# Entry
Amino acid sequence: MRTYTTFVHFVESRVLSRLRRRDFLIVFVCLFHLSCVSVNLGNGKSEKAEDISLTEPSQPFITAKDSMSDRLWTSTTTGNSISYLSECTLKTDPSLESLQNDYTSVLKNSEIVKSEFVQFNRREGIRFQSRGKLDGISVKFEALIFKKNNCNYTLTYGGREKSFDQERVHFEQFLKNFVVP
# Structure
């Protein structure tokens, strides 16, 4: 049985891979169509945000290791997970819709169930629920994506579709206590 940790890792690696492809296309266009222009795109790496204030999700969630997320917590009851990812860079500034599309595109038969623009940490964000299949398993996740201080933040909750609603209250509490200065 795959855990949601694998799901989060898979989704985030696909999103980062897609952003790298976009960077490659920018460089390609600049080199071959604008050969007179010098463009500094930096080192291609983003930094993690600092000074984030949060309250860790309560039981049954426990801290888990994941190299793709800044922090990850997995439920010992259902395997559902809560995580956040921060990417800080001056190099790119994708739209919220683009970040949403990149995030949902990794699921087979992906369907955005609900999507709305919201205010979060005094910034506009996009909050959405999506469902689809991952390795033949029906999954569902909810994410809130927002930008602040040259950083993109993705806060997620998800897991198997059949157990999605059981622990969603923990994600709501996590969002209430997630503060970026």
User: Anything to note?
Assistant: The chain has one domain: 4-176. Strands lie at 61-64, 71-75, 81-88, 108-120, 123-134, 137-148, 151-160. DSSP finds three helices and seven strands in the chain.
